[in-house]
Amino acid sequence: MAKWTTAEIPDQRGRIAIVTGTGGLGLETALALARAGCDVTIAGRDPQKGAAAVSHIEHAIPGAAVRFGQLDLADLSSIASFAKQMESEKPRLDLLVNNAGVMLPPKRRTTSDGFELQLGTNYLGHFALTVRLKSLLAKGRDARVVSLSSLAANSGKIDFEDINAEKNYRPMAGYSQSKLACLMFALELEGRSRAAGWGFSRLAAHPGIARTDLVHNTLGRRSMAGLARTLFWFLLQPVSYGALPQLYAATSGQAEGGGYYGPDQFWETRGHPHPARIPPQALDSVARRRLWEVSQQMTGVAF
């Protein structure tokens, strides 16, 4: 695969996108899509951060079609309200980038609905959002849903007996489980969408190791992980490179439904978009079907 960059993003004029996450990879993705002419809603919990993200994009791209939508992925009622608003405002949805997330809270925390925070935000929130937006996606043109996974998925395991980590909470195990679930959802949804004719493709991507503020925002700058992130910033690739795999999945004509994309160098930690290695546990069709059913039961929404 050639060294793909944002310069190769096809003309996105006339396309409508939602990107979750107002900073880091989400902001970089929304910026690139808006620059290509896409109508972008950047969705997040904090209105101040949302306004700053919109201002940043408008300053970089005068006349950009960009707006903020308030969405708390850790609250199922907020997801329902956001989806209802989008249905009232948009004729269709061509692209949904499920990007936002939290990482490694040292102590077990829960969402408004009682889910372990990482599972609830990174995975279950995006599961419910995708279900809620299904009718808009079905009207989309070459509609795509892109899930952000992680290299952490390689060591992940879906603990169906303690999926909410009520018995045993370990921060990294919880994060890895949530990111493996995102990848498994992408693979399962692609197969079901094809079989049922839902009219949209599902792809997944991971950023390698990117210089985002995810650790700072979750653990704080003075935590051990936060200090390491600050001091050793040069070991991480820039956010603009970290966003390339999901932008490739979202826009490239070469990206295939059910595909998984990540960086092409140094064990997929940095570089340009390339087909990523899918961990064996994500290919377990029985586990994927079970996760699908459990997710519908937990969120109370179904395809």
How are the SSEs ordered, and which strands pair?
Blueprint (H helix, E strand, L loop, with lengths): L15 E5 L3 H12 L3 E6 L2 H14 L5 E5 L5 H14 L5 E4 L18 H16 L1 H5 L4 E6 L22 H26 L3 E6 L8 H6 L4 H8 L7 H4 L1 H8 L8 E6 L4 E6 L9 H15 L4
Parallel strand pairs: 1-2, 1-4, 2-3, 4-5, 5-6, 6-7
Antiparallel strand pairs: 7-8
Helix pairs in contact: 3-4, 4-6, 4-11, 6-11
Q: Distance N terminus to C terminus?
A: 35 Å
CATH-derived architecture: 3-Layer(aba) Sandwich
Top CATH class: Alpha Beta
| pLDDT averaged over residues | 92
Numbering strands along the chain, what is their spatial order in the largest sheet?
3-2-1-4-5-6-7-8
Structural class, from helix and strand content?
Answer: alpha/beta
- Classify the oligomer: single chain
Summarize the structure.
This protein has 303 residues and is an alpha/beta fold. The chain contains 11 helices and 8 strands. The chain has one domain (11-211, 241-297): NAD(P)-binding Rossmann-like Domain (Rossmann fold).
Detailed description of the structure:
The chain is an alpha/beta fold and 303 residues long. It has one domain (11-211, 241-297): NAD(P)-binding Rossmann-like Domain (Rossmann fold, 3-Layer(aba) Sandwich), CATH 3.40.50.720. 42% of the residues lie in helices and 15% in strands. The chain contains eleven helices and eight strands. The chain has an eight-stranded mixed sheet, with helices on both faces. Helix 3 (76-89) runs parallel beside helix 4 (117-132) and helix 4 runs parallel beside helix 6 (171-196). The model is unreliable at 214-235 (pLDDT under 50).
